[in-house]
DNA sequence: TATCCCAGTTTTGCATTCAAAATTGGAGCG
DNA sequence: CGCTCCAATTTTGAATGCAAAACTGGGATA
């Protein structure tokens, strides 16, 4: 198994919440499960610690990182900045074909909204945000985005929404698609910020900071 | 020696250009120099690879990452976004005392400009940019900023400037300080973007992409 | 002479081992 | 009964050892 694969597998375990935030990471056990020895496992843990998904305590092992309200706020703040930038760049660089794909994803997502299927809605939602970032054509940006969103994923794509908020989110997504189609970078950037600000408020209001015992037990692949 | 310290030492070696971009990283040698064995060294290299400073080639060792023109452009683009965000947040959160410190740093930097001391000018310049990011009060943002700027540091703070460009940069810094003092987030954000865009043009024009043989041999601590 | 091939060497990646630090559990004491 | 302290055990962090992959260079061949 390649180094990157080990990192990926552990990252998935953490994002799935299989090892809940704050829990000790059982080295020995993971070694057996991944059929590797401690050396490559520990290499992966250090990488994940640098990413912010794992917390290393000297001589006391590693734990799945636990996000405070402040962490959550900071992450959303940065995420807003990254998506806003991605939106601007995407408008300069996106192809017609890419816009069509996003429009299709948007339409599908709206259907899930009408069906009241939150899981599928979130899945489509995430695909759209990621497509915009991809369309920005900046791998550095995409990398940071991936790492930041990984940390808030469970909160962002799991929080239940009130009908009002959900309706607003869908409306915002209409505007997002519209701005993209008009290639209105400034406009898209602005909408994305507002969209994420609302999402952040939602998440924080729902009290989804990962304090003791919060385990969402959800796997949004 | 602590893990973080090992990472830091190797990072410094790379940023100093002691191991020039593209060069092979001599594992054995570094082990002796840092007086550690291969295990912690390799852990550090994987972390630095995740940061983008090191390139890992399976079964072929690691090299100091080499930046192409595209990489440089992408990094500057992201850096613009991060600083713009930092500027906005800083205006909301910065204290009067912090503004005074930045004003003092600015004044000192202008003196170095008048002296024609580019090294000292760059040092002050960097301190100001970092102070703004710090004032944003967002550790996640600060972390990403550190990692992104590390990768372009040699280009950003080493490129020689024409008198015109230098004068313009100083003028932009006047405007930066002014916006900060007025706590004009939008304005500051705008100026920072322009400032960095100009810097990027300068760097790319100077052909400072790290292709073969480019070794700046400079240490701006 | 240039190219190909293959044994010898080096380097890499990982498993294992070992010392040091932390945790545990229970005996002794208040 | 609860607290403290200390030896036994576990876990961590790092050095070493080992198999496999990649490099090297010298000779055979075209």
Briefly note the structural class of the backbone of chain A.
Answer: mainly alpha
| Second CATH tier, the architecture of the largest domain in chain A | Up-down Bundle
**Number of separate helices of chain A:** 9
The order of strands across the largest sheet of chain A is: 1-2
Instruction: Work out the strand percent of chain A.
Output: under 5%
Domains of chain A (count): 2
InterPro entries (chains A, B): GntR_C, TF_FadR/GntR_C, Tscrpt_reg_HTH_GntR, WH-like_DNA-bd_sf, WH_DNA-bd_sf
GO molecular function (chains A, B): DNA binding; DNA-binding transcription factor activity
Keywords (chains A, B): DNA-binding, Transcription, Transcription regulation
Protein name (chains A, B): DNA-binding transcriptional regulator, GntR family
Give a brief description:
The structure is a homodimer of 221-residue chains. Chain A has helices spanning 3-15, 27-34, 38-51, 69-93, 96-115, 118-135, 139-156, 163-181, 185-205, and strands at 54-57, 61-64.
Description:
- The first copy, chain A, is mainly alpha-helical and 221 residues long.
- Chain A has 2 domains: 62 residues, Winged helix-like DNA-binding domain superfamily/Winged helix DNA-binding domain (Arc Repressor Mutant, subunit A, Orthogonal Bundle), CATH 1.10.10.10; 137 residues, Four Helix Bundle (Hemerythrin (Met), subunit A), CATH 1.20.120.530.
- Helices cover 71% and strands 4% of the residues of chain A.
- Chain A contains 9 helices and 2 strands; from the N terminus they run αααββαααααα.
- Chain A has a two-stranded antiparallel ribbon with strand order 1-2.
- In chain A, a hairpin with a 3-residue loop joins strand 1 and strand 2.
- In chain A, helix 1 packs across helix 3 and helix 4 packs antiparallel against helix 9.
- The first copy, chain A, is globular and about 55 Å long.
- The two termini of chain A are 22 Å apart.
- Chains A and B meet through helix 3, helix 4 and helix 7 of A and helix 3, helix 4 and helix 7 of B.
- The structure holds a DNA duplex (30 and 30 nucleotides).
- Chains A, B: InterPro entries: GntR_C, TF_FadR/GntR_C, Tscrpt_reg_HTH_GntR, WH-like_DNA-bd_sf, WH_DNA-bd_sf.
- Chains A, B: This is DNA-binding transcriptional regulator, GntR family.
- Chains A, B: Keywords: DNA-binding, Transcription, Transcription regulation.
């Amino acid at each position: 198994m390649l180094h990157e694969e080990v990192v990926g597998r552990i990252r998935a375990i953490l994002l799935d919440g299989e090892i809940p935030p704050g829990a000790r990471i059982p080295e020995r056990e993971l070694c057996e499960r991944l059929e590797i020895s401690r050396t490559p496992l520990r290499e992966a843990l250090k990488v994940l610690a640098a990413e912010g998904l794992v917390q290393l305590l000297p001589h006391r092992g590693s734990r799945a990182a636990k996000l405070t309200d402040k962490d959550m706020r900071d992450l959303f703040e940065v995420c807003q900045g990254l998506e806003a930038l991605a939106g601007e760049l995407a408008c300069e660089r996106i192809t017609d074909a890419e816009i069509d794909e996003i429009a299709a994803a948007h339409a599908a997502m709206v259907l899930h909204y009408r069906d009241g299927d939150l899981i599928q809605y979130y899945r489509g939602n995430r695909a759209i945000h990621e497509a915009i970032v991809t369309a920005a054509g900046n791998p550095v940006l995409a990398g940071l985005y991936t790492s930041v969103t990984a940390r808030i994923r469970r909160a962002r794509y799991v929080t239940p929404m009130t009908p009002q908020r959900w309706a607003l989110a869908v409306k915002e997504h209409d505007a997002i698609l519209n701005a993209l189609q008009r290639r209105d970078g400034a406009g898209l950037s602005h909408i994305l910020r507002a969209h994420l600000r609302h999402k952040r408020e939602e998440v924080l209001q729902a009290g989804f900071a990962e304090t003791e015992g919060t385990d969402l037990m959800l796997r949004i692949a």
